[in-house]
Amino acid sequence: MNPPILPAFRLPSLRNFSAVPVILALLGILVVWSSWYTVPSDSVAIVQRFGKFQAEVQPGLHFKIPLGVDVATILPVKRQLKQEFGFYTEGATNVDQYSDDPTVESPMVTGDLNVALVEWVVQYRIAEPTNYLFAVREPGITLRNASESVMREVVGDRTVDEVLTIGRQEIEAEALVKLQQLATRYLMGVSIDQVQLKNINPPHPVQESFNEVNQAQQEKEKLINEARRDYNKVIPLAEGEKDQRIREAEGYRLKRVNEAAGDVARFNAVFTEYQKAPDITQRRLYLETMQAILPGIQNKIVVDEGMKNLLPLLNLNTSQKPPAEAAP
Questions:
Q1: Helix H or strand E segment including 49
Q2: Sorting pLDDT into bands at 50, 70 and 90, what band is 3?
Q3: In whole angstroms, how far apart are CA 252 and each of 76, 247, 256, 259, 261?
Q4: How far apart are CA 58 and CA 74, in angstroms?
Q5: Which of 138, 151, 171, 310 is most buried as measured by Cβ atoms within 10 A of its Cβ?
Q6: Cβ–Cβ < 8 Å for 200, 116
Q7: pTM value?
């Protein structure tokens, strides 16, 4: 039995269908969509018309001529940008934040022909948007090259010990000044906020030896600080004792001088009175002397000038105590 024959299915004819309205509609949507743009609050937009600078637009919603006639380039002028050298941070939003091979930027030759691995960060802001876009080709890469050149110059003027230990702040300050001067000369349109050194290490083959030297240096500084602490503890105490002894000596000197002056004045006064009445003065001095001496003598014997046979009377070989009574 033969299967039933089905009627043939025919597609609708496209001869009468016109694509012009669809194309016009899509073109209209594209024109409307590309006619508006928004500038964030921390940015400005540089508008170019057929490649020529037209205006600098502030934050907000703005209109432009579509279809590539007007091109708006948004620049984050109020945001602090940074560039990393010798290392990189994951998730960076700035396309010029790190290079393709950071290890090439890190090795630097110091002034004493040694090698140090230097990692640093440059923080900057876009101060002049028009210069940033039009005065220098590829401003981000240009700034990276200028930063690397300045850092190599600054590190090359110092010894490896200064770079690795005590010279970090001086390197940062000098690199900041020189990089800003270079950016101003090249009309980059950027303001350098900070140059910050991160890690500074010797090359890997000598890093262990350097760590030992650094540890010895730290031990030296520790001993010096301890010695200074003991010095500051002992020396002020000795200085205080010295000042105290000097003041005591000064006081004793003034005391003796005053006492001597008083004795001289008293002697002169007595001598004056003695000249007026020698007998009376001599007797008064005798009585005053006896008054000062006699209270210190426990046993007193008053002897008459005319008494004779003094020794038998005193009986010096016997005790002062009364004799004991005889036993019955």
A1: strand 44-49
A2: low
A3: 81, 9, 6, 10, 14
A4: 10
A5: 151
A6: yes
A7: 0.59
